[in-house]
Amino acid sequence: MSQDPWAEMSDEKHRVLGFRAAEPEEALAHFTGRLRFETDPYDVNADLTAGLTGFVVLDVRRRPAYDAEHIEGAVHFSHHDMTPRTLAALDPAPVYITYGWGPGCNGGTRGAAKLAAAGLRAKEMIGGLEYWQKGGYPTAGSGTGSDAESGAGSGLGVGARVGVGAAATTRTGAATAPAATTGCCI
Length: 186
What we know:
Layout: H1 5-10, H2 24-37, E1 38-39, H3 41-49, E2 55-59, H4 63-68, E3 70-71, E4 75-76, H5 84-88, E5 95-99, H6 107-117, E6 122-125, H7 128-134, E7 139-140, H8 147-150
Parallel strand pairs: 1-6, 2-4, 2-5, 5-6
Antiparallel strand pairs: 3-7
């Protein structure tokens, strides 16, 4: 509980309080900062269920994983296909909510970083599809549903509808995600 970081890092007796707790204003900045970058399945589902707009849910995993199962209404846009050119066609108005498979997958982080690099607002849905499923929230996949409604099959190509939780927008020029043999996003 010293000001010396080496003493704090070496304190084997005090696991919880070995590092001094942050002062309230420092903690507030940290936690509200995290909430500006992250959301979770409960909050995304609550806002979708309430019909709130202003955000688009993007599944940034590879196409086979999306086709097998994805958040109901999520748009497929693999982080592998995100380039300055493909991202330039996205509507800058909504916040893009990215997700990958789960906590062991950083695809959602990669997608959000690429969106931000392109000047778009993004948040990562922590927990990914794994925690969406654990919450019992609606999913789609396995070849069911309309490709025209979800953007599946077009890779968000010319005129694809982008509109989960947001007014429909369109983008052009994205290539279909490369085939992959695993459900992992990387």
